[in-house]
């Protein structure tokens, strides 16, 4: 037997466990690891993978976006591996069943007032061990403020890190044609 040179010391860089030490999250991981192994449902594998993710990769989702994605899907459960937040611009909250890691106080109150319910992932595992009648959703990843600043350079139109937005702050050379050039 020779040595497998090509695959020698090749590390899988994907997360195998969450970085967090949150005991409740670790219990969920234990539960979904079992479900992913013992059921042939890809839903559990996806949920498990998302439980491992960092907070940046588990973006929040507003209640209005959840409702928009659940339109015409009566009797199904919206599953968000992340936070669900309230949206004050959204006036009529429909009856929803949401399973999420976290939900804000106001969002929860509005869902319950509309006759819906908010469940945890362990309750979801009892109801739908294979993810039947669920809609797996996730928030927009690139709406973070930090993303607006990425890719800075001439002609890139990335948001600069500026002290203030006044006349004296990064408004001269390179920003106006009257001050040398405009990029």
Could you characterize what this model shows?
With about 180 residues, this protein is an alpha/beta fold. It is about 25% helix and about 15% strand. It contains five helices and five strands. Strands 1, 2, 3, 4 and 5 form a five-stranded parallel β-sheet that branches. Strand 1 (about 60), helix 3 and strand 2 form a beta-alpha-beta unit. The chain is flat and about 65 Å long.
List the helices and strands and how they pair.
Elements lengths: L22 H16 L3 H11 L8 E2 H7 L7 E9 L11 E7 L1 H9 L3 E3 L1 H7 L6 E4 L46
Parallel strand pairs: 1-2, 2-3, 2-5, 3-4
Helix pairs in contact: 1-2
H-E string: HHEHEEHEHE
Q: In which range does the helix fraction lie?
A: 25-40%
How would you characterize the largest beta sheet? 5 strands, parallel
Number of separate helices? 5
The number of distinct β-strands equals 5
- Spatial gap, N to C terminus: 62 Å
Described by the principal axes of the CA atoms, the overall outline is flat
- Quote the average pLDDT: 94
Poorly predicted regions: none
Tell me what portion of residues adopts beta-strand conformation.
5-15%
Tell me the structural class. alpha/beta
Rounded to an integer, what's the Rg over CA atoms?
23 Å
Key terms for this structure?
five-stranded parallel sheet; single chain; 5 helices; flat; 183 residues
In short:
With 183 residues, the chain is of the alpha/beta class.
């Amino acid at each position: 037997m020779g040595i497998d040179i090509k695959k020698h010391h090749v590390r899988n860089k994907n997360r195998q466990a969450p970085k967090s030490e949150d005991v409740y999250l670790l219990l969920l991981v234990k539960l979904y690891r079992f479900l992913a192994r013992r059921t042939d449902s890809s839903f559990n594998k996806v949920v498990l993978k998302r439980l491992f993710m960092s907070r940046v990769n588990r973006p929040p989702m507003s209640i209005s976006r959840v409702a928009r994605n659940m339109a015409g899907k009566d009797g199904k459960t919206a599953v968000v591996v992340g936070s669900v937040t309230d949206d004050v611009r959204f006036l009529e909250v429909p009856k929803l069943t949401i399973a999420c890691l976290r939900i804000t106080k106001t969002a929860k109150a509005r869902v319950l007032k509309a006759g819906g319910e908010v469940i945890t992932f362990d309750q979801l595992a009892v109801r739908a061990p294979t993810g039947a009648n669920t809609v797996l959703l996730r928030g927009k990843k690139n709406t973070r403020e930090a993303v607006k600043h990425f890719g800075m350079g001439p002609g890139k139109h990335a948001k600069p890190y500026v002290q203030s937005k006044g006349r004296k702050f990064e408004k001269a050379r390179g920003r106006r044609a009257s001050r040398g050039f405009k990029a």
